Structures are given as structure tokens and as C-alpha cells.
Amino acid sequence: MSASRPGGPGDEVLGVRPVRVERPETVEEAAEALRRAHAEGLTVVPRGNGTRLHWGGVPRSCDVLLDTRSLDRVVEHAAGDLVVTVEAGVPLARLAEVLSPAGQQLALDSPVEATVGGALATASAGPRRLLYGTPRDLLIGVTVVRADGAIVKSGGKVVKNVAGYDLGKLYTGSFGTLGLIVRASFRLHPVPAQHAYVTVSGREPLKAVLALLHSPLVPSAIELDGDASGSEVVALFEGSAAQARAAEAVRLLGGDARVGEEPAWWGAYPEGEVLVELRAKPSELPDVLSVGGVRVRGSAGSGVWFLAVPASEAAELVVRLRARWTAIVRHAPVALHDELDLWGPSSTLALTRRVKDQFDPGHRLSPGRFIGGV
Amino acid sequence: MLQGLAEELRRVLRPDSVIDDPVRLRTYECDGLTVHRARPGLVVLPEAAEEVAAVVRACVARGVPYVARGSGTGLSGGALPRTDGVLVVTSRMRRILEIDLDDQRAVVEPGVINLDVSKAVRPDGYHYAPDPSSQQICSIGGNVAENSGGAHCLKYGFTANHVLACEIVTPEGEIVTLDDGPGYDLLGAFVGAEGTLGITTKVTVRLTRNPEVVQTLLAAFSSIEQAGEAVSAIIGAGIVPAAIEMMDALAIEAAEAAVACGYPENAGAVLIVELDGPEPEVAHQFAQVKALCLDAFEQRVARDDADRALIWKGRKSAFAAVGRISPAYIVQDGVVPRTSLPRVLASIDRLSRESGVKVANVFHAGDGNLHPLVLFDDAEEGAEERAEGVSGAILDLCITHGGSITGEHGVGVDKARYMPRMFTDADLDTMQLLRCALDPAGLCNPGKVFPTPRLCGEIPRVRRGEPEGELY
Ligand SMILES: Cc1cc2nc3c(=O)[nH]c(=O)nc-3n(C[C@H](O)[C@H](O)[C@H](O)COP(=O)(O)OP(=O)(O)OC[C@H]3O[C@@H](n4cnc5c(N)ncnc54)[C@H](O)[C@@H]3O)c2cc1C
User: Fold this and answer.
1) ipTM beyond 0.90?
2) C-alpha B411 to ligand 1 mean position (Å)
3) Can you give the residue range of the structural domain that contains A245?
4) Are A184 and A218 found together in one domain?
């Protein structure tokens, strides 16, 4: 049975306490909860394990907090097809446990506590995005409950499929504003037999990054941590001959390049009051590093960077970044949200609004969590 | 009826970019799926995004439907024109605008031919990964619309995974760039929307470093079941080949007749398994693959690129080659989970025997994408209908086994009627919410993908929890 209780301390989403908390155990119960909310005109904010609940805007209203954590079934692991179908509340750690006996993985470096639904809703990815892409590239089918409670799907459970619009990509990164993601199918990858990390430090990180990108060594990730005065570039190799490739990379890079361990900062966001995600071209690395005394960490091969700054410096930094690049404030103290304009300018804002108007005409799903007050 | 529009467009575009001569219009009456034909009301050949936008705005102002067309190689009738509308052909937008190797991307106009992108960066050791068999003629804009795949998408992914940004003319005539910036992933939804959400005018594609080595194995099996088992064993061993392609006896016979590819005689099925990547990786896995194809009665390893091209020649020419053994045929495109391939193939075989309709099987075995070629003699009464029946029954098999009615050729006009077998009304209605958001007037490539269009209703003005006047 779907558990329903009044909202209390600890249930807040960025300070907004829900009137009620619903915790459905089945897709049908989730749909029922959304149908009721629809009939009563209530606003609904989904939550998973809360690893990214502080990302995005403050909900304008939260009548119902919809907790997905009891939607926790692994529906089907078709090992021979390298496909898995799971409910949205399954944590990535549990999914990994289910897949590992078959030597398979969902190649997504999101925090392992995150639920599948949360990872999709925030489109979060980590170092290995370079080789495997981001959640949009791994998702092959999705079921959502619409604002009016209808259960609808797009895609399927085969890796190759072009029948109909790929709405999975639209829901990915939509922060719960288009529908409640309840079930997802992913393409899986074999777990590689070997891993090897190659580290190189110095003042010319771009040279190392480009050497790796232009080489035929196929790193799974090229990460960087540092600032203008110096940085560490670490590449990950995976496969049945990863060690041999890492040795080759060491020769290629020269200098102080060496085979090393996974660094402590691997895949972790830098810590600070305000976290900014920056998208730049890989070749713009020197400019990103010299943006001004700020430590930068991220996927050098893909040009996705994270910068953590104290609240007092955030506004000025964000303006400087946006003069040239896309910069999204992932989280910040609520008091700064308006000033920082979390999402920044977007050439497609008008289209985003129109999509929202169609999928959720009453603007009842996670209102205000997304760009432009959507 | 389109006379006024033609005159208006001649003032905006170069006069010779507007075609209304009935004889010339016929050139454009169908795409690669020739059973569907319609003479376009008007054809325009714009040379820039602004021209495309002007055409779209003129169409919208008059309520005239319009359809985009690249090279016209589509196999689902996606570029089928409207007799009462305008066909926007991108063949004069063929410039490669920018190549940026350090950032591994190129910016191209939509009419650029797929293979020309790879050719342009070949000297630098790069290529554009999606490689449809039609890559010598199909356009990048068409690839984007169809989310085209190719033999190597098993490892490298589809068009959607290789497009970083698209400049489009929206169905209301605005020029907008879709990329990975903040907001909904409209780029993701646009790729594969079959030209129903706007017209692509510029594409930023990812360039892929050429692999250090490539190894290609041709393995001949006495039965298709054995070949299928080898595929499962390879995937089961945790190997992701660049490609695994399968052909059955009839398809081999056709290829042999057409291009003399020299495949082993009396094979019930052949597999082409290609591995690529860093040398030590490939060496290790290729040895494994050869061992896993133990049931093959003959294994042939490509000695060099020329030899590899010969092995691929049989496969790549298979569609056309079937013309050698049958006066007419239907190219089907369906998907099943890879593990159900043996059962589905057995069922196709049964269908074929029961109906007396021959089916040649060519497929991307690694991802379960079937291309059965359903043969018939168009001179024979009722033969086409029987072939259609078998072809449709194959799609039903795909759906029953949890697969899809199309893996890469798209829905177009051809398969719209099958969509309700795969999706509920609510599913299809939800997809069309996106359409209503972008193309409320329903003038952008109408009648494709969806069996029944959705009327885009008025949007309620009252919104909960939103301070009045904050938005818009
Ligand atoms: C012999 C042969 C082999 C093939 N092999 C493969 C294969 O291996 N894999 C595969 O995926 N496909 C294959 N195809 C199908 C076809 O080549 C692809 O679908 C291709 O992407 C179509 O490109 P095109 O330029 O010919 O597009 P067209 O046929 O001209 O158009 C296809 C669709 O794209 C839309 N469109 C075209 N340009 C634009 C634009 N600029 N903006 C918006 N919409 C646009 C059209 O409206 C239409 O809906 C094959 C076809 C043939 C004939």
C-alpha cells in the first residue's frame, strides 16, 4: 500500500516543507497519487535518495512530496541482451550489485546512493562520460507518469530503436518538471577486466589532454584537477589490455607521467558553498584554468568543468563565465538564487516553456525547479 | 494554388531555386521507398538558413504544409512530398563549414554527404562514426532526422550520440540552435524526429579518432542457428565488437550473383565480425572471437584493407543484390532482443515456408536489428500483397518478442499504422505533446510517424503556484 503521511521536519526541498508525503510501492500507486493530485489541483515534487535535491530551484509550492524509494524493483535483467529494466527508486549501488554477477555494469558515474530516477532527472554523469556518454546515451526506454496520472512510455528495451519520438532524452535532465519517471531501461556494458590510471602533472595540461585525445589509446576518461598554477591530469584506461595501454600512454606523455592510483578527487564535485558547472571546448582549457584563482575540476576530454566558490565570490565569477560559456549553478545558498540566476541564459527558453505548457499545463510538477521558473 | 507562393519565394530566393515545372517536380516524387509517390506542389533549393526560414514563414503564413528532403534515400517515405505543399531540398547546402580536430568536431551544412565528412578528416586520422550503408549518398540532415545507424553503431552508437548541436528552423520559422545548454534536451528529441519538428540547417558532429588496428573475420557456418550461437557467445564473453553482421544462404546467393564477393560455398550463414581499437586490446579479443566461432566450417581473416573491403562488399551490396535473384522485394527493418534471434529467425522461416514467399535475411546481429528482404514477382497477381503480409507478420514477431518496428529506417508514412501495435494511444498522444509545442499548426512534415494527428488544443491559462504576471 502506498504510504501517505503529513510532511514533517526533514522532508523539505530547499526549505519548502511538503503538506503531504506519498511513498507509492508500485507504478500503479504512483499513477493514482498523481491522478489525485491532478483532480485536486495539487503541486507535486518527486524525490529519490536526496543526493541532488539541493540542485535546481526552490519549488514555488510543494503540496505533495512524491518519494520514489519504494519503487525499487529490478524488473528484468536480460544479461544476454546487455539490457536492464528497473524502477526509478532503485539506488545505483544496488543496481551494480545485481549486474555484477553477470560481469555487467551501467556505465554511469553518478554517486552510488543516487536513485536511477534521480540520476536521470538531473542528467548527472561523471568521468567516464568521455567513452560511454551521459544518461541520455545509455537510456533506451522510459515509463513516466504524466501530470494527469496517465502512465506512458517511449523507447523500448532493445538498444536499437527509432520508433516514435525519443522522449527519454527530453525527460533526462528535466528535474521532475515534465513527468514522474517510474521505470527505465538501459543499455549495459561489460565490466572491463583491467583498469589503469595514468597521472601527469605540470603547467601544460592541455598538451597532455590533446595528446591523449589524438592518440588511438581510447581512454575511458580524462580528468583534471587544478588551477592556473598547476594541475593534475589523470586518464583512465579500461579493457582486457588496459595496463599495456596505460604504459603506452606514459611513453606518449613523457615528463613525469606515471601509472598511478585513482586520485581521491576522482568523480567527486569540488566542495564549496556554490557549485558551478561549466561547458567549454576541450581546447579552451587554459582559459578555463585562468578564469581567476578558482580551482577547477572536471572532464577535460569532454569539456565539462566544475568550479566551487565561496558565496561572496559567486556572482562575479558567474558573470565572467557566462560572458563566454554556458555556466549552470548547480547549487547555491537559497538567498543567492535570484541574483545568480541558476541556469543562466538559454537560446531555447521559449521552446522549453512551450514544452512544459504541453506536458504540464497546470504547472503542478516541480514548479520553479527548472530554468526560467519552469 | 501555390502560384502566389512560388512568386513570393522567387523574390526571396534566387529565382532558379524555386521549381514549379511539372516535369522537374517529378524528380522528387518519392524517396528510397518508391511505392509511395506524390508530386510536390513546389520544390525549393535554399542555400542558407535564412532562406529556409523565409520559406517556412511563407508556408506558415499561407497554411501550406512543407517537407524537408536531403538525398532522398530514406526507406520509410519520410521525405514523401505533399501535392499541396512545398518540398525543401538541402542539396545546395553542402559546405563543410569548420573542422576543429582539437575539439574533435566539425560543423557542416545539412546537405553534406555522410561519407564526405569522413573523407575530409581522413588525412588527419579521424572519421565520422555513424556509417549507414547509404553513406556515399545520404545527407547529414537526413541522418539527423532518422537517427541513422550503421554496421559500426553496435560499438560507436547512432547519429544521436554523435551530434553535438543542430541549428534548426523551427516550424514557426525561427532560427534556433539546439545544444547541451540549459533547458530541456530538445537536441536529443529532435534527432530521430523524422523532420517533423523543424528543418536542420547546420549540424555540429563529433569526429572520432581512427582505431589503431582493425581486424575482420568472415566465418561461415552450416546453419543460421550455429551462427546465432556464436554471436551470443561473443557478446556473453564481454566483447563489444565494432560490428557483427549476419547473412543467410539466400542473401549470400544474391550477393555472390551481384558482386562475386567469394564467400565460402554452401554456407547456411556467414558472420562478419570486426574488432577495432588499441592493438593489444584487439589482439587479445580477436583470438577469443576466433575461438568462439569454433563451429564455423571456414574462417577467413582479412589480410589488409583491400581484403577487408572485399569481405564487406558482399554485405554492403546485399540490398541491391537481391534484385539479381528477385524481380522485386521489400526491405524490412525490425529489431528483437539479440537473445531471441534464433527463435525469431525460426519463425520467419516458418512464415516463409507456409506462405511460399521467399525471405533473405541480412542483419546487424550484434544489436538484433533484422533486415529481412521479402522477395516477390511484381508481374504475378497478388504476389505483392502476399509479400506485404509476410513483411507485416515479421514486424508482429518483433513486437511480440519485445522489440521494435524499426531500428534505423524510421516510421515515416510506411509504418505509422504499426505504431499502435507498439505504443498505446496515450503513449502516442504524449509524443505529440512535443509536436504541439514546436509545431502547433501541424504543417511540418505532416502525416508522418503518427497514425492519427493530435489536435493541439488551447493551453489553459491558469497555473498553480505561479505568481501572476511573472512569466511571459
Ligand atoms: C541502399 C540503402 C542503404 C541504407 N542503409 C542504411 C543503414 O545502414 N542505416 C540507416 O540508418 N539507414 C540506411 N538507409 C536509409 C537512409 O539512407 C537513411 O535514413 C538516411 O539517413 C536518409 O538520408 P537522406 O539524406 O537520404 O534523407 P531523405 O531520404 O531525403 O529524408 C529522410 C527524412 O529526413 C528528413 N530530412 C532530410 N533532411 C532534413 C533536414 N535538413 N531537416 C529536417 N529533416 C530532414 C526528411 O523529411 C525525411 O523525413 C539506407 C538506404 C538505402 C537506399
Assistant:
1) yes
2) 12
3) 195-338
4) no
